[in-house]
UniProtKB/TrEMBL annotation, chain A:
Keywords: Cell membrane, Membrane, Transmembrane, Transmembrane helix. It is a multi-pass membrane protein. Pfam families: BPD_transp_2 (PF02653). It comes from Devosia riboflavina. GO terms for cellular component: plasma membrane. InterPro entries: ABC_transp_permease, LivM-like. This is Branched-chain amino acid ABC transporter permease. It is found in: Cell membrane.
TrEMBL record, chain B:
It holds the Pfam family BPD_transp_2. The chain crosses the membrane at residues 12-36, 48-67, 73-95, 107-128, 163-181, 209-233, 239-256, 263-282, 302-323. Belongs to the binding-protein-dependent transport system permease family. LivHM subfamily. One of its GO terms (molecular function) is L-leucine transmembrane transporter activity. GO terms for biological process: D-alanine transmembrane transport; L-alanine transport; L-isoleucine import across plasma membrane. GO terms for cellular component: plasma membrane. This is Branched-chain amino acid ABC transporter permease. It comes from the Bacteria. InterPro entries: ABC_transp_permease, BCAA_transport_permease. It is a multi-pass membrane protein.
C-alpha cells in the first residue's frame, strides 16, 4: 500500500516536472497554487463523503461563499458608501429581517396559545409571507440606493488582511453549512444530493444578483494577495519572469502550510476515536445509533467541518486569481470536478484525495492544449488526404475538458471503484 | 379586459408550456427512479441529445426539400424519439448495467450518471460548438394573434404554432402513457416492479424487459421534451442541463416514482415560476382608479425579481423536502 502510494506520488511529481518543461514554469507554478487550493477543497469533501458518507453536491455554493467573504474582508474600503446613507438603510433592512424572523418564530410557537393543526400551518405560511414582504420593503430601496452613484455602487470591502478573509470565508461557510445541514441532513442520499445542489444554485443566484453586496456580474478586482505581488518584486529590480515565479512560490508556500496543517489535523482526527465513530456512522448508522451515538449531531458536525475547508479553499482561489466573478462559477467546474477528484483519488483516504485533486486539476488544465494538439495533428493529416481541415479547433478543444472529466470518472467507477489510493480498513484479528 | 388577456399571455400560456416540458422530463426521471432506484442526472443529456437528433433530422428534411405544413421539428419527432430511445438503451447497457451487475449502490449509479452527463455534453459541444441553433432558420415560426377587441381588449391573445402543438402533443402522450400503465400487461408489470422489485421478480415478471421498457419510455419522452423546449426557445448544448434541477424538483414535488405526480409537479413548478415573476400591477392596474392616492400600486409588484425565476423551483424543492418529503402523491420516502 505504502509502496503503491509512493509510486503514484512519484509519478505525479514526474508529471509536474514534465508539465513545467513543456508548458513553461510560470504556467505550471500558477496551476500548482490552484491545485493546492483544490486539494484543500477535496479534503473538505473527503471529510464529508469519505469519513461521514454525506452526499454534498453543493460545493460550488461554499466556494462562492468563501470567495465573496475574502472579497468583502480584503478589498479596499469604499468611502462613498460609508459616507452616504447606505449603512443606515442596510441597518433598517437588517432590523426588518430580524423582525421578520421574530414573526416566523412566533407563528411556529402558535400552539402555545391553542392554535394547532391546519390553522397553525396557515398562520406559518402567512408569517413567512409577511416577513418576506417586510424584508423586501426595506431591502429593495437600500439596494437601489447603494447601486446608484450616490450610494457608491456597492458596499466595497473592509481593507483587512487577506488571511483574515480566508478565516472569514471558513466561518461564513460554517454558518451556512450549519443551516443547510439542519435542513437537509435528515434526507436520504439522492435527496440530499438534489437538495444541496438546489441550495448551491440559490446561493449562486443570490451572490450573482445582489449587486449592492458583491457587485454581481460586474466583478470585483484586483483583490489583494496575502503574500508580495510580482509587481513588488519587480520594483526591487527583478525581471518579469523571475518576479512571477518568486511571487507564486511565496503564495504556494503559504497555501502548502495551510494544507499541511489541515492534513495533519484531519489525519489525527481520522485515527482517533472521533474518526472511528464517524466511520461507524457511515457504515451503519442504525448500529451506531444503538451504541448511543447521536448520529444527526455528528453528521452535522462533519458537514460543517468539511464546508469550512471548502470555504477556505474557495477564498484562496479567489484571492489568487485576484478577481471575483460570480458568473464564472459552474456546477461542472466547481462541484463535479471536486467529486471526480475524491472518487478517483480514493474516498476516505486523505492522501488519496490529495493525489486525486492534484492529478485531476492537472488533467483538467492540460486536456485543452492536449486536445488542441491532437486536433491540429488530425487536421493536417485530413487536409493531406483532401478531406479538409477541422473547423473551429480552438473552440472545440476548449470543450474537450468536460468530456475528459466524464471519461475519467466513468473509467474510475468501472475499474477502480475505491480509488487509486483506497481507504485502508484496519481490522483487529 | 386587456389586463386579463395580458395575464393569459404571460402566465397561463407560458406557464402551461413550461409545465408541459417539465412534466415530460419529470416522467422519465420518476420512472427511472421507481424501477432502478437512482436519481438519473444524465436525463438532461437525453433531452439535449434528443433535441439535437431532431435538429439533425429536420436539417436533413430541409436539405431534401421536404416542406411540411406543420413545423418540421414536429414531423421528425417520432423518428427522433425512436433514435433517442435506442440511445437511452445503449447508455444503460454501456454504463449502468455493468455497475448494476456488480451490485453497486444507488449512490454509485448516481455518480456514474454524472459521468455520462459530462461525456455526452462534451461530445455535443465537440460536434456542435457552444453556439445556439434554431429550428426556424428555413421556415417561419407561425404566430397566431387573436383579435379580442370584441370583448374590449386592446391587446391580442398571442400563441405560437409550436406552443399549440406542444400542448396537444403533451396531452396525447400523457394520455397514451396513462393507458399503457393502467391497461397493458407490461405497464402493470412496471407498476408492480416500482412497488416491490423482489415481489415482482418472484411472481414471474421479466424484470430485464421492464428495465428496457423504462429506458425506452424515458428516452422517448426526454427527446420529446428537449425538442419541444428547443422549438419554443433555441437549441443550445446546455439546453436541458440548466433546467434539470427544476425537473428534479417537479419529480420530487409530485412524489418520486409516481408518473401522475410528475405531471402534476411539472405543471405546478411551471406555473409557480411564471406566477412568481409576474408583475401583478399589470393585472391589478384598473384598481388604481378606485384606490385612494396613498395606496396606488407601484410600477412593479412581483413576488421575486425576474432574475430569480429558476430559484423559485429550488425553493419549492427545499420546502417540499422539509415539509412533505414523499411529495404530493406519496412517492418513495426519504
Amino acid at each position: 500500500m505504502i509502496q503503491r502510494s509512493l509510486t503514484l506520488f512519484g509519478g505525479l511529481f514526474v508529471l509536474i516536472l514534465l508539465m513545467g518543461w513543456v508548458m513553461g514554469a510560470p504556467f505550471t507554478s500558477s496551476r500548482l497554487v490552484e491545485a493546492a487550493a483544490y486539494a484543500l477543497i477535496a479534503l473538505g469533501l473527503n471529510i464529508q463523503w469519505g469519513y461521514g458518507g454525506l452526499f454534498n453536491f453543493g460545493i460550488m455554493g461554499f466556494l462562492m461563499v468563501g470567495g465573496a467573504a475574502v472579497t468583502f474582508i480584503s478589498y479596499p474600503v469604499n468611502p462613498v458608501f460609508w459616507g452616504g446613507e447606505g449603512p443606515a438603510m442596510l441597518g433598517k433592512a437588517l432590523l426588518a429581517f430580524a423582525g421578520g424572523a421574530l414573526i416566523v418564530l412566533a407563528a411556529r410557537k402558535a400552539d402555545r396559545i391553542g392554535i394547532t393543526g391546519k390553522w397553525k400551518a396557515v398562520l406559518t405560511v402567512l408569517a413567512w409571507f409577511v416577513a418576506y414582504v417586510l424584508y423586501r420593503s426595506q431591502l429593495d430601496p437600500a439596494a437601489a440606493y447603494i447601486e446608484s452613484a450616490a450610494g457608491g455602487g456597492w458596499v466595497g470591502g473592509l481593507g483587512g488582511h487577506p488571511i483574515l478573509g480566508w478565516v472569514f470565508g471558513g466561518v461564513l461557510a460554517a454558518g451556512i453549512a450549519y443551516v443547510v445541514g439542519k435542513i437537509c441532513l435528515g434526507l436520504r442520499t439522492d435527496y440530499l444530493a438534489i437538495a444541496t445542489i438546489g441550495i448551491s444554485e440559490i446561493i449562486r443566484a443570490l451572490i450573482k444578483n445582489m449587486d449592492w453586496l458583491t457587485r454581481g456580474t460586474l466583478t470585483v478586482s484586483p483583490i489583494p494577495w496575502p503574500t508580495p505581488l510580482p509587481q513588488e518584486f519587480q520594483a526591487g529590480g527583478m525581471n518579469i519572469a523571475n518576479s512571477l515565479l518568486a511571487a507564486r512560490a511565496g503564495y504556494l508556500l503559504l497555501a502548502l502550510v495551510v494544507l499541511g496543517v489541515v492534513l495533519w489535523l484531519i489525519s489525527r482526527a481520522y485515527a482517533g476515536p472521533w474518526g472511528r465513530m464517524m466511520r461507524a456512522i457511515r457504515d451503519n448508522h442504525i448500529a451506531a445509533t444503538s451504541m448511543g451515538k447521536n448520529v444527526t449531531a455528528r453528521q452535522l458536525e462533519i458537514f460543517v467541518f468539511g464546508s469550512v475547508l471548502m470555504g477556505i479553499g474557495g477564498a484562496m482561489l479567489v484571492s489568487f486569481v485576484q478577481i471575483f466573478d460570480p458568473s464564472s462559477y459552474q456546477p461542472i467546474n466547481h462541484t463535479f470536478l471536486i467529486w471526480v477528484m475524491v472518487i478517483v483519488g480514493g474516498a476516505g483516504n486523505n492522501w488519496g484525495a490529495l493525489f486525486g485533486a492534484v492529478l485531476l486539476w492537472l488533467i483538467w488544465v492540460v486536456s485543452e492544449p492536449l486536445s488542441k494538439a491532437v486536433f491540429d495533428f488530425v487536421s493536417t493529416w485530413s487536409t493531406q488526404f483532401g478531406w479538409g481541415a477541422i473547423p473551429e479547433i480552438e473552440a472545440r478543444s476548449a470543450q474537450m475538458r468536460v468530456f475528459v472529466l466524464g471519461l475519467v470518472i466513468t473509467i474510475a467507477l468501472r475499474f477502480a471503484p475505491t480509488g487509486l489510493i483506497p481507504e485502508v480498513v484496519k481490522r483487529e484479528s | 379586459m386587456t389586463e386579463l388577456v395580458f395575464f393569459t399571455n404571460q402566465v397561463i400560456i407560458s406557464g402551461l408550456v413550461l409545465g408541459c416540458i417539465y412534466a415530460l422530463g419529470a416522467i422519465g426521471i420518476t420512472l427511472i427512479f421507481g424501477i432502478l432506484r437512482f436519481a438519473h442526472f444524465a436525463h438532461s443529456e437525453l433531452m439535449t441529445g434528443g433535441a439535437f437528433i431532431a435538429f439533425l433530422l429536420a436539417s436533413l428534411f430541409a436539405a431534401w426539400g421536404i416542406v411540411t405544413p406543420i413545423p418540421t421539428g414536429f414531423v421528425v419527432l417520432p423518428i427522433a424519439m425512436v433514435l433517442a430511445a435506442i440511445l437511452a438503451l445503449g447508455i444503460d447497457k454501456g454504463f449502468y448495467a455493468p455497475l448494476r451487475k456488480r451490485g453497486a449502490k444507488p449512490v454509485t449509479l448516481l455518480i456514474a450518471s454524472i459521468g455520462v452527463t459530462l461525456m455526452i455534453q462534451g461530445l455535443i459541444r465537440l460536434f456542435f460548438g457552444a453556439g445556439s441553433y434554431s429550428f426556424f432558420e428555413t421556415e417561419a415560426k407561425e404566430v397566431f394573434r387573436f383579435d379580442l377587441t370584441g370583448i374590449g381588449s386592446t391587446r391580442p391573445l398571442v400563441i405560437t404554432e409550436p406552443q399549440v402543438l406542444m400542448i396537444l402533443v403533451t396531452f396525447v402522450s400523457v394520455l397514451a402513457l396513462h393507458f399503457f400503465l393502467t391497461r397493458s400487461r407490461l405497464g402493470k408489470a412496471m407498476r408492480a416492479m416500482a412497488d416491490n422489485a423482489d415481489l415482482a421478480q418472484v411472481s414471474g415478471i421479466n424484470t430485464a424487459l421492464v428495465v428496457r421498457v423504462t429506458w425506452i419510455i424515458a428516452g422517448a419522452l426526454g427527446c420529446m421534451a428537449g425538442t419541444m423546449l428547443a422549438l419554443d426557445v433555441t437549441l443550445k448544448p446546455d439546453l436541458a442541463f440548466n433546467i434539470i434541477l427544476p425537473i428534479f424538483a417537479a419529480a420530487i414535488v409530485g412524489g418520486l416514482g409516481q408518473a401522475y405526480g410528475a405531471i402534476a409537479g411539472g405543471l405546478l413548478i411551471g406555473f409557480a415560476e411564471t406566477l412568481a415573476v409576474f408583475n401583478w400591477t399589470m393585472l391589478l392596474r384598473p384598481l388604481n382608479a378606485i384606490l385612494p392616492d396613498w395606496m396606488q400600486l407601484p410600477p412593479t409588484l412581483a413576488l421575486v425579481p425576474t432574475e430569480y425565476k429558476l430559484t423559485v423551483a429550488f425553493v419549492i424543492l427545499v420546502v417540499t423536502l422539509l415539509v412533505r418529503p414523499t411529495g404530493i402523491f406519496k412517492g418513495a420516502s426519504s
